[in-house]
Write a structure and sequence with these properties.
222 residues; alpha/beta; Alpha-Beta Plaits; Pectate Lyase C-like; 2 domains; six-stranded mixed sheet; 4 helices; 18% helix; 36% strand; disordered N terminus
Length: 222
């Protein structure tokens, strides 16, 4: 995905799999942005179940069917489509896709993974500009978080690489959450309700950890 591409891909972990929100000027922009993100992070998406939010985009059966087939070829299951467009909603229903994700589908109730305080979302690729990943527990990134990338976790965030984007740990108020990275130089870092702006490690080329101590956001060697 290039900086010239105005479409963005926002990813959120949900009980049923991944919720992917696409924004862009046209359906080709949105579709290409999604496919580019999958090409950049194939192991992250492999075997994933996607619920796709396309906003007000109006989709024909042929357009959505073609995308579903492309995703299937990459080992990705498209099971739901969210849209403000009645036409897109009808298209999704015609293809047997769900149009609501507030509750797991009945056949998924017993098999859907439970998110516990020890659950972590593994992101096995670099998080590039324009990508937002949100998860209601911990997030571990095996790669970098580039400027323009955003990580939001209810728990802690560990980046096995360079953290230069935005990160919010303890997003639901957990003041015990920490942020660790091999290079801690975020554009913006938040833990619970406290925020700091880079640089936190003053250019030191060593692993760092940010945490709250006595209500203050501090960085120290990790």
């Amino acid at each position: 995905m290039t900086d010239e591409n105005t479409a963005q891909v926002q990813i959120k972990g949900i009980r049923e799999g991944l919720l992917v929100t696409l924004t862009g000027e046209s359906w080709p922009d949105k579709k290409n942005a999604l496919l580019a993100q999958i090409e950049n992070q194939p192991s992250f998406f492999q075997g994933a179940r996607l619920a796709l939010d396309v906003g007000s985009q109006s989709l024909k059966v042929a357009e959505l069917s073609a995308l579903r087939d492309l995703l299937s070829e990459k080992g990705i299951s498209l099971w739901a489509l969210l849209s403000e467009s009645p036409r897109s909603e009808q298209t999704a229903q015609n293809l047997g896709l769900a149009t609501r994700i507030s509750k797991p589908r009945p056949q998924e109730v017993r098999t859907a993974p439970e998110i516990t305080p020890d659950t972590a979302l593994w992101v096995r690729q670099t998080v590039r500009s324009g990508t937002r990943i949100e998860y209601p527990s911990h997030i571990v990134v095996l790669g970098d978080v580039n400027p323009g990338g955003e990580i939001v976790a209810a728990g802690s965030v560990i980046v096995w690489g360079r953290l230069r984007g935005m990160v919010h740990a303890g997003a639901e108020g957990d003041e015990q959450a920490v942020v660790c990275a091999l290079e801690l130089a975020p554009a913006q870092l938040r833990i619970a309700g406290q925020m700091a702006v880079s640089p936190m490690t003053e250019g030191r080329d060593q692993p760092g950890m940010a945490r709250l101590k006595d209500g203050q956001l501090l960085a120290e060697p990790w």
